[in-house]
Amino acid sequence: MVGFGHDAVRLAAGGGPFPGGSVVGGLVSGGQLLSREAARPVVSSGFRGLDTLLPAGGVRPGSLIEWFAGSGAATVRDEAAPPADDAVALASGAASLAFAVACRLAAAGGGGDGTGRPRTIVVVDRTGWFHPPAVLPWLDDERRLVVARPSRDDDEIWAIDQALRCTGVAAVLAWPRGTAGGPRRGGARSSGSWQQWSTAMRRWQLAAASSGAVGLLVRSAAARGEPSWAEARIAVSPRPGGSLLERRLQLALAGGAWSAADPGTERSAEVLLDLARAVEAPARHAAAVRDREAVAAGPARWRGRTGERHAFPEAGAACRAS
Amino acid sequence: MSRFMTIWLPRWPVQRRLVERPELRKVPVFVCRRERRGAMTVVSWAWAEPPRVERPASPAAGRRESATIHPGMSLAEAMAVLAVAHGSRACHVAEVNHDDPVADRAALERLARWCRRFSPTVGIETAVAASVPECLHLDVTGTAGFFGGEAKLVRTVAWTLAAHALHARAAIADTPAAAWAAAHHTDALAPSGAGGTMMMVLPLRQADAPAGGVRRTAVRRRRRWAVVPKGEASTLLAGLPVVALRLDEATATALREVGIDSVGGALALSSRSLASRFPPLLSRRIAEFRGTLAEPIAPPGGEPLPQESHAFDFPVQAADIDEGPLIGMIEPLVGRCLAPLIGRGEGVLALQVRLEHGPRTAAAAPTVIDVGLFRPSASRTHLVELVRLRLGRIRPSAEIDGIAVEVVAAGPLPCRQRLLFNAGGECGLEAADVDAEVGMLLDRLSGRLGRAAVFEPQPVGDAQPEHAWIAAPPRCRQGPRPSSSGRSPPARPLVDGPAVYDRAGRSGTRGRSSPRPVPAGRRPIWMPPRPLPLDVASGRVVSVSPDGPPALFRLGDRVHRVVQAHGPERIETAWWRGPTVRRDYYVVETESGERFWLFRRLRDGGWFLHGMFA
Hints:
The complex is a heterodimer.
Chain A: H1 4-12, H2 30-39, H3 48-53, E1 64-69, H4 83-88, H5 94-107, E2 120-124, E3 144-148, H6 153-165, E4 169-174, H7 194-211, E5 214-220, E6 232-239, E7 246-253, E8 268-274, E9 279-280, H8 283-296, E10 318-320
Parallel strand pairs in A: 1-5, 1-6, 2-3, 2-4, 4-5
Antiparallel strand pairs in A: 6-7, 7-8, 8-9
Helix pairs in contact in A: 6-7
Chain B: E1 4-8, H1 12-20, E2 29-34, E3 40-46, H2 59-66, H3 75-86, H4 88-93, E4 95-98, H5 101-114, E5 122-124, E6 135-139, H6 150-163, E7 169-173, H7 176-184, E8 189-191, E9 199-201, E10 225-227, H8 233-236, H9 249-257, H10 263-268, H11 271-277, H12 280-290, E11 307-317, H13 323-343, E12 346-357, E13 367-377, H14 380-391, E14 399-412, H15 431-449, E15 454-459, E16 469-472, E17 532-534, E18 541-543, E19 550-555, E20 558-572, E21 582-590, E22 595-601, E23 607-612
Parallel strand pairs in B: 2-4, 7-10
Antiparallel strand pairs in B: 1-6, 1-7, 2-3, 5-6, 8-9, 11-14, 12-13, 12-14, 15-16, 17-23, 18-19, 19-20, 20-21, 21-22, 22-23
Helix pairs in contact in B: 13-14, 14-15
């Protein structure tokens, strides 16, 4: 696909002679982008259920993935609400799953060939709520975690863009609010327009495509109706019943710019996240948990975008000493 | 013919401390070295301002004159001498410091750079075997004319240093060795003639010369400078003791044994007897004294960091000027600062850009833009980009008179060969490339967001969750890391972490540098800056048992029924840390599967939300 003309453009732009290296001049033709994306091997997310949902069968380097936290029950909340209210819908395990995928991306390839694989994970934490001790045990000496805490919205957009543009970054994790959702530091903020959000996300998508980094954006379920440039949009809703170090998560494909998925044809899968190692728990655990849940006879609680949960089982508090 | 000046700063280790702490001038100051068995040896000592002697004619005053403490004495012995001379009170107030040769040398290097106003070539003496050099050599060939002659230059040096509270002696001679000898014995030299440039050695009679070797003049006033005219060093300095040749003790003793105790006697020896009868140091020192062996002046270790400035012809209103032209003026300054650094194989670690405001404006202090980097960089575009990011946030309002760019810190630049064609494609980037990319990203992020807003979290062994990590500045990774295809990676130290939480069989090396790693999976990924109180009084938290987990709690407008709770995990902090923290933490799972981290404050039973397993 890349002919002589493309090479001439690339060299004139001042980029290195690497296909897919950082092109400083920013002059990249569409054909190059396509060929570059085709040359990138798809990386498994480490979760079989998630891989079946992703359009490419795994995480494609240089793409964005949106994670919608919480069920569809969370609605757009008013700006004056305390931050805890927004956070309630977000205690669902989406950020943990996204970070587990980021760890997997940072470790992809193993680095045994002596080349410099990007091993840095950048967390852009506009909220100031990110608690690193939760994820530090998941990192080894090779992987590196950098946290940036912007204090303004435009700084956040810029920081995500810069991090995605860097070829040394494996994954960028952020919880941008977009036009709605997500806890905020400093209370309410002016509501951004869809246009602004769409522009920012397009910038991120182009930045990721130029470098090969993966953007993992954790957002409130209230943002599902917004335009998106993500390759996949995954709705994450928790399922009760996991043990202390396991988390059962129900995933559903909620569209994506690249798959042009019909909202009516949602596919879903379930993963069991091992919180001790940030990997998928063995299948026997999953089966055991499923059996236990069958005994509990709990109804399927995730009902898609408009699903609401009012069927509260009258289960008492099960206190279990750890 | 070359001319050299030597500036001698007697007892430099003490002088340096006196400059840093002027209050020490009133007490005796000892700089001591701790020897192998704990004994303290005096390296240098001084009492800048001893108390006035009330009765000079008393016997005590006579003893004071004879109180001499030599370097190499033990501290106890020196204290005894001091007590005899000045009374035991002097020993009580004496300040005893450990020696710090590195700091002494660094201070002397700073002084050497300052002395470049007298000569472009300034160096620290290297010939003396003493651990702490005390002399600076200056090549003043041709520069004396700017100061009105050599006598005025040397006097200016002595008095300028005295104005900076530094006692210095200076001398000019044909060679550094001769200047050194003259500077150390300026007392023995006196002016002759009205010109003031001619100096003569006082007639020395060996019989009545004291142990110091030089007879004191009747007037107690000490001279601080001397000029040895061209070609007369051998004759004028002949009467000085042989130690003026910078000899070690063994060589000086060997000379004294054969009855040679002056420079003139040593110079009179034939070169053949020198080589056969004395250590080679003597012949070398004599050659240096005569000038037949060149003695290079080594500049101080660190070159001065580059600094460039540009002054406008007319003051410019900052409101009128756009960011682009300002950057356009800063960029060549940065380029000129980088040029000498690149030649030395160094890159910029910290850069300061100052927008100077004129004296007419209210803001007299310049607007300062400090740019710090995580790894040295010699890329002009990268540095200018960092300045631009900061300039966009700091817009000066006053009028600008000029721009100054100064390199504040520099570091060695990682240098390696690049491949012209890298067939590996995107994945074939070398490790150093990746690290460099991340380093530049960190520079950009911290440049715009602030240096404190970009960090690498590190675990610390603190039980209180809020303090279980610290925001460490990102590490700078220099050079390529060892790959596993090459030698094996270094073994990671085993951390004695509790393995009880780790049922997956992972080894206890999870917390990387922490002595007590946080157990994996037990901490929420989101934690509010401070615990959110859950009001008990309004029925927002319902607990079944007084010490048990909550069964129901309300957050916002939602009621959460707890279906599973893990805990309690009791966390208490030490009393010496301030207010004691005593909490019982529970990981609670609600009926919808969401997980929260709640705790009960044991002091009053209040409930708080402290995290979400997002």
